[in-house]
């Protein structure tokens, strides 16, 4: 039975039966922290009289339905207002950077699926491109277009979950059901292409695993023809919706300079008016050759981020349509046994093919010793980059994952300070973190 | 010494300056910035390496803050994208910290690197210039044990403070160290567990039923 003192002082003695040093450190940090945004903006908060006159420390999470995963927020409250916030992450830490050092480059692919599990295809592609840059592997045209289509579908899939879950946090359940219908349609496409609905692992170093079947193309065409109207319908419902606008407008305002200083990335950065999108900044795949705009807002609040993401979905659909038009015929994997897996026809019907397949599984690509490369893509959450170092063997010497959710969460900590507890939930869903990625 | 007794090392590839990389980006062509840094800081810039069109500038440890300040305030590299550590294990100057900086206005990206000895693994923190470095430096400390001087909050990032090892060092075993991390009890009344992977470390799991003796089917025929 929790007593009154437990509720008031969750960091009292013997409250936590494990990790005493860790919880003491979190508490110390909360007490000694300076509110960075207040410092930057040179403002002093006035203590408004409140029914609850005392300050209270509240421990939200890690097991809270609105925290989108195992995110622990320790907040210091003045009445209902969050004075200070300390985020404690690492509850989903699996050490995949360490695991990567004992895998071959191709073997590590399924681990990337489980980072940002709302858009696995983006992670696969980010990993492949980084390895391809490190080992200088050229990818056939058709594979690049297929990757682009799938990356954009993954972006829509991730944004659909953000929309549904974000609205459910604000109290509207119906959009969650509608957006999950959209995700179901997307899963069917991934299923048709890769044979897996969720963790696809379909991209390969030097290309992709299998070609788009006529059925998959039909499903993608069907999706791109139906969904612009559906997304417009949702925007019609939400853009001028009094409740939704009131809950989002002016919440978590971050200026462009602050966003850069905090290291925000992706839609969170573009919502603050910084035009930084890797698809334009350093174009990869074929993004130079398609026509699309980068949605940008300057308000920097939750509503701006909402608009950016909604418009991004429509832009993604435009990109996919152009890709389908321009999809060339040809190979889907590099035709070099040192760089990519041989096709299954070769493996099953020729001795060399089988040896190459075996060698590629056993050793895989071996970039030169001392080679380093950083390659980033614009994942749905922001800049997802892999920094690789090679020691000349088939296993990477160091894999560094620059995860967008991690940097966005760091900004979220500052964004939450000064807002009521009720807005914390809106802010978390607006920053759109995925703990699988943030915790690595 | 007779020819037959001489020991020949297998030659290994050094890092190649690879400008023909098909994935090289225009944003990483930062020769001008590198020249500007060299002109201003001289011997503080120890080395510049190029691979896949990416420039890596090696900076003396104690001058990293000055170099970052110059890059940020005079050359427009205001956005710290990534910061992390590398364990070079058997080499001199074992740990390496890299900084990935971006100039959004001019679309440029540059990488700085600092090397430190294991016995003195301290690097000046850049959080005063880039608040975004805060969590990245904490992560680097957590994983490799590199300390960042003047960091406002150098706690572990992922692992609890009660953990005493640095897991991303090369000598740390992949399966973990048994008993190194106290974990919550598995039942409300249970005791703290220290090793969730007891079975993997050789201890037999506790079974709630008696297994038949293993020779029932083999020797009892």
Helix % of chain B is: 10-25%
Whole-angstrom Rg of chain A: 23 Å
Outline type of chain A: globular
**Oligomeric state as shown:** heterodimer
Dominant shape of chain B: globular
What does the largest sheet of chain A look like? 3 strands, antiparallel
Structural classification of chain B: alpha/beta
Class from helix and strand fractions of chain A: mainly alpha
Helix content of chain A: 40-55%
What summary fits the major beta sheet of chain B? 5 strands, mixed
- Based on DSSP secondary structure assignment, what is the total number of beta strands of chain B? 7
Radius of gyration of chain B: 25 Å
Low-confidence stretches of chain B: 205-209
List its traits.
heterodimer, A: 440 residues, mainly alpha, 3-stranded antiparallel beta sheet, 19 helices, 50% helix, 11% strand, disordered N terminus, B: 221 residues, alpha/beta, 5-stranded mixed beta sheet, two-stranded parallel ribbon, 3 helices, 15% helix
Q: Can you describe what's shown?
A:
The complex is a heterodimer of chains A (440) and B (221). Chain A is mostly helical and 440 residues long. Chain A has 19 helices and eight strands. Mean pLDDT of chain A is 87; it is low at 1-8. With 221 residues, chain B is an alpha/beta fold. A five-stranded mixed sheet of chain B has the order 1-2-5-4-3. A two-stranded parallel ribbon of chain B has the order 6-7. The radius of gyration of chain B is 25 Å and the shape is globular.
């Amino acid at each position: 039975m929790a007593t009154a003192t437990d509720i008031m002082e969750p960091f009292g003695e013997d409250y936590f039966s494990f990790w005493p040093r860790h919880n003491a450190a979190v508490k110390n940090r909360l007490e000694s922290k300076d509110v960075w945004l207040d410092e930057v903006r040179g403002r002093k908060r006035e203590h408004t009289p409140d029914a609850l006159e005392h300050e209270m420390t509240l421990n939200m999470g890690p097991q809270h339905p609105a925290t989108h995963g195992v995110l622990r927020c320790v907040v210091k409250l003045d009445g209902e207002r969050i004075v200070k916030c300390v985020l404690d992450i690492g509850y989903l830490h699996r050490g995949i950077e360490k695991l990567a050092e004992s895998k071959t480059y191709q073997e590590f692919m399924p681990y990337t699926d489980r980072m940002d599990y709302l858009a696995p295809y983006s992670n696969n592609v980010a990993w492949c491109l980084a390895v391809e840059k490190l080992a200088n592997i050229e990818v056939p045209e058709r594979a690049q277009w297929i990757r682009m289509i799938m990356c954009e579908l993954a972006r829509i899939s991730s944004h659909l979950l953000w929309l549904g879950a974000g609205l459910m946090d604000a109290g509207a359940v119906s959009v969650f059901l509608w957006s999950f219908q959209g995700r179901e349609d997307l899963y069917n496409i991934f299923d048709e292409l890769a044979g897996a609905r969720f963790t696809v692992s379909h991209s390969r170093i030097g290309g992709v695993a299998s070609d788009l079947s006529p059925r998959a193309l039909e499903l993608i065409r069907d999706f791109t023809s139906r969904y612009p109207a559906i997304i417009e319908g949702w925007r019609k419902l939400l853009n001028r919706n009094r409740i939704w606008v009131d809950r989002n407008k002016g919440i978590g305002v971050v200026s462009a300079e602050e966003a850069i200083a905090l290291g925000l990335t992706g839609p969170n950065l573009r919502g603050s008016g910084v035009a930084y999108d890797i698809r334009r900044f350093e174009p990869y795949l074929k993004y130079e050759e398609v026509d699309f705009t980068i949605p940008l807002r300057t308000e920097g609040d939750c509503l701006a981020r909402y608009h950016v993401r909604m418009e991004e979905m429509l832009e993604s659909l435009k990109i996919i349509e152009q890709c389908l038009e321009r999809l060339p015929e040809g190979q889907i994997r590099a035709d070099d046994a040192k760089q990519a897996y041989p096709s299954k026809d070769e493996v099953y019907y020729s001795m060399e093919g089988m040896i190459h397949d075996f060698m590629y599984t056993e050793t895989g690509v071996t970039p030169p010793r001392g080679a380093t490369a950083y390659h980033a893509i614009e994942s749905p959450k922001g800049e997802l980059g892999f920094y690789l170092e090679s020691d000349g063997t088939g296993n990477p010497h160091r894999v560094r994952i620059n995860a967008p959710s991690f940097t966005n969460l760091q900004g979220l900590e500052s964004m939450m300070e000064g807002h009521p507890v009720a807005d914390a939930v809106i802010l978390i869903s607006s920053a759109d973190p995925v703990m699988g990625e943030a915790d690595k | 010494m007779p020819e037959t007794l001489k020991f020949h090392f297998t030659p290994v590839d050094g890092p190649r300056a690879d400008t023909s990389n098909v994935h090289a980006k225009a944003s990483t062509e930062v020769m001008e910035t590198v020249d500007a840094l060299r002109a201003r800081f001289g011997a503080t810039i120890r080395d510049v390496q190029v691979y896949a069109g990416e420039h890596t500038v090696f900076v003396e440890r104690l001058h990293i803050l000055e170099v970052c300040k110059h890059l940020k305030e005079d050359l427009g590299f205001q956005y710290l994208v990534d910061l992390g550590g590398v364990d070079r294990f058997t080499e001199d100057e074992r740990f390496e910290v890299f900084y990935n900086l971006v100039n959004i206005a001019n679309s440029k990206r540059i990488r700085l690197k600092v090397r430190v000895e294991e016995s003195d693994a301290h690097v000046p923190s850049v959080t005063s210039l880039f608040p975004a470095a805060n969590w990245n430096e904490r992560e680097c400390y957590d994983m490799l044990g590199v300390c960042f001087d003047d960091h406002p909050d150098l706690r572990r990032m992922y692992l609890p403070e009660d953990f005493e090892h640095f897991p991303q060092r090369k000598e740390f075993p992949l399966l973990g160290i048994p008993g190194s991390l106290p974990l919550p009890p598995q039942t409300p009344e249970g005791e703290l567990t220290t090793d969730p992977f007891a079975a993997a470390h050789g201890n037999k799991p506790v079974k709630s039923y008696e297994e038949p003796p293993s020779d029932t089917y083999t020797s009892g025929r």
